C-alpha cells in the first residue's frame, strides 16, 4: 500500500537532491512558514535553522508558525489538532503581528502547504502575496503514513485508523491526516465526510470567498518532488490525483473536475499565469540551498 505524506523537514543544507547555481539574495516582504507533520516551528536542525538562514540571507522578518504555547504542543499539532482549529489560531496570530500588516509571502512545508492555502482562502488579512508549497498535498493522499518521529506502535495505530476508519467522525476529529485522506474508490464518502480538504477544495458547496481570496494571490507556486516516497500520489503536489473509481491512473489538474468545473477559480489563475509548477528531483522536502535560492527567491 502506498504511504501518506510525512513532513519531517529534510531541508538540504548538506543533502543531495535538487541542486542549482547560487543566485544573489534580494530583500522583500516578511515570510510566514508552516511546518509539516513530525516537525515544529523551531527545531534548529529543520525550520528553526531554515528561519535563521532566510533572515540572514534575505534580511527580512520570518515568522515560523507555532501551534500552542510550547514545542511539545506544536509537535503534537501535526498529528492531533484539527486543521480547522489550527487555521483559526494562525489567522489570529497573523492578524496580531504588526510586522505582517503590509502583507507577507508564505512557505508551506508538506501538509503545512495545504494549511497555508486554507489561510489564503479563509484569512484574507493580512494579505498573502505569494503562496509557495513544498510537497503539499492539495488533492490529499491515499495510503499509509510513514511517521519515523513517532514510536512504531503509535505509527501503526495511525495506519490502522486511516485504513479502516478514516471517515468516521471521531477519527476526523482525532487525527490530522484523516482530514486530507482522499479515497478515490469512494469519492462520495470522501466529499461528504472529509472535514478539511473537501471544504477548502470546494467539493461540497462552492464558497465564493475561497475563490476570490485565492485569486488575490500574486503567484501560487507548487513544488513537486519527483522521487517523493512519502506523498502518494506524487501528483497531488500539483493538484493532480487518481482518476475517480480506481487508484492507478493519474489525471492532471487540467483534467480534473476541480479544474473543469472551476470550483476554486484555478482556471482563471492558470490563464493569468498565477499558477507556477516547479519540479525538484529529490525525495520529500530534499532540496539544496542553491536550488532554493534560484527557484524560490524570485517569489520572495
UniProtKB/TrEMBL annotation:
Signal peptide limits: 1-20
Keywords: Disulfide bond, Glycoprotein, Hydrolase, Signal
Pfam family, any one: Palm_thioest
Enzymatic reactions: S-hexadecanoyl-L-cysteinyl-[protein] + H2O = L-cysteinyl-[protein] + hexadecanoate + H(+)
GO cellular component, one term: lysosome
GO MF, one annotated term: palmitoyl-(protein) hydrolase activity
EC number: 3.1.2.22
GO BP annotation list: receptor-mediated endocytosis
Family the entry assigns: Belongs to the palmitoyl-protein thioesterase family.
Protein name in UniProt: Palmitoyl-protein thioesterase 1
Record organism: Aedes albopictus
